[in-house]
Amino acid sequence: MEHGPSVVSLAIVVLAALLTPILINRLRVSFLPVVVAEIIVGVIIGRSFLDIVDASDPWLNILSTLGFIFLMFLSGLEIDFDAFTQKSSGQKKSKVLKRPLPNTLMLTVGIFLGILALSFLFALMMQSFGVFDDIFLLVIIISTISLGVVVPTLKEANLITTQMGQIILLVAVIADLATMIMLAFYSQLYADSSQPIWLMAILIGFAILFYFLGRVMHQSQLIRQLNNGTMQIGIRGVFALIIMLVALAEGVGAENILGAFIAGCIVSLLKPDQDTVHKLDSFGYGFFIPIFFIMVGVDLDLPSLFSDSRVFILIPVLLAAFLLSKLIPVAILLRYFDVKRVTAAGFLLTSTLSLIIAAAVIAEEIGMITSAESGMFILSAVVACIITPVVFKQLYPKGENEERSINVTIIGNNQLTVPVAHSIAGGLYHVKLVFHKNYTDSREKSTENLSFNEIAEYSEECLDGIDAFDADIVVLGANDSDINWRVAQMAEKHGVERIIYRVDDPAQENAVKERGFELFSTMLSSKTLLRGLIESPNMMQLLSDEETSIYEIQMNNYRYDDMMLRDFPFTGDIIFLRILRGQESLVPHGDTQLFVDDRIFMTGSREYVEELKRELELY
């Protein structure tokens, strides 16, 4: 009986993929990215050392290709396009800032353009000295930044939501997007293909069509019903999208990874829920992608690579180009941050892996570089990814988020705002009560956590003078709706994250909701309170008791992302009541996992809740 291809090599690779993260954990080498460790393991079991894996095995070739495609899909999925439209927090003060930041998007685009210009300069220098001739490929390789290394490093350090973290992330997003487009044009330009380059417009056209179809399906009630149990229609739709765009990309003469990357961008724009993203990550990083990275190591022939004397020139030169092309443009941030933070950011942006591997593989396939040169590029990327995250963690100042507090500005001094200001001031909350001198004769004295600020008028100049908009929350609680409306618009202009608006005139409710302000209606609150007292008197007592009240916490700390409640390290006088995740409402139990953006409702002592709020919300 004739047998098909052996699965022995596949079994070895899958076993290696299983054991690699376990070994990293047991050996406590957390500084080493898992994907780099997988390449190193591939080197050990591959051609360079043990040679126990058949690199030509058809099973491995298919799964490795799928891993490569899925890696590019997840690279597109990691891009947060909201980052390009976020308002600048330029006027908001921070203890780590020397001066207010300008428009963040313009700043990060300028940094990337600097990286691109220096990459071109270094490519010209390398060509003139005879180190390497292909300038276009060198520009792509030097200027790219790996989101797959930057994002986990920032999350692990709890810096992804900080001002510096957002700048690093946005530079990496722009670099990833731009260099992927450049790589697509490079492969189209030099590949031996009879397809004209304008056919790529067909791919873009279908991508736009699939995006609008995806929006329709995403809002369909039928699709939501089919997205549970064994059907999982959402995951099936994502895989169908990937395969269709990969096939279309190959059909128009482009690289298949371009189609996969565009598919990831489309899914990112559709804003999938956290559960869907988690499932896609599980598919990719749980099976397909480890096989691809291990096979990259298997294919590396280090003895042959180091027999070429150019390796001792090209790799150090590339590493120097990687570092200098990032450190020099990032130096503009010295106007806003200290030297340690800026230097650490430059090192982290030097992390580069996935796209260098993609560029090396594609350039070798189309005959632009040799296998030895491809190996040199990959090896330089691996070395960069081992060194730069470690240097970043050592350089970046510790404890940026240690002193966390929520700054609240309350506009108006009346029977509603004053008691609320007194009740929340202290501990986590620092309250600033602002009022017009003609409307009060308050003689209350300011304390450490509650300050009374009298102003001549509700003008932007007067409010800026007392730093009224240097706040996480602005509450518009004045008795005059015109004052509330004007100050709310000023707060929005200054980039205040939460604006709570008091509405006494029902005609104003729609206008307030359209602006995205949080609505507070004294009339509605009174009705709710009266109804609650009639129907559930004990519940109302629970809600109004400061020691047994129900609290809400927004989960922003990536350290606890994907952690089960049974493993949650905090213990104390607290009970988890409910978790809101997107449109879902979950009753928590030991096996319930916490995810970033979850809204957690709990009851317990106020002191402990505030401590937990500081930790999870990272104020």
Characterise this structure:
This protein is α/β, with parallel strands linked by helices and 619 residues long. It folds into 3 domains: 369 residues, Na+/H+ antiporter like fold, CATH 1.20.1530; 130 residues, 3-Layer(aba) Sandwich (Rossmann fold); 73 residues, Regulator of K+ conductance, C-terminal domain (Alpha-Beta Plaits). Helices cover 56% and strands 10% of the residues. It is built from 24 helices and 12 strands. The strands form 3 sheets. Strands 3-2-1-4-5-6 form a 6-stranded parallel β-sheet, with helices on both faces. Strands 7-12-9-10 form a 4-stranded antiparallel β-sheet, covered by helices on one side. α21 links the parallel β5 and β6. It is found in: Membrane. Keywords: Antiport, Ion transport, Membrane, Transmembrane, Transmembrane helix, Transport. One of its GO terms (biological process) is proton transmembrane transport.
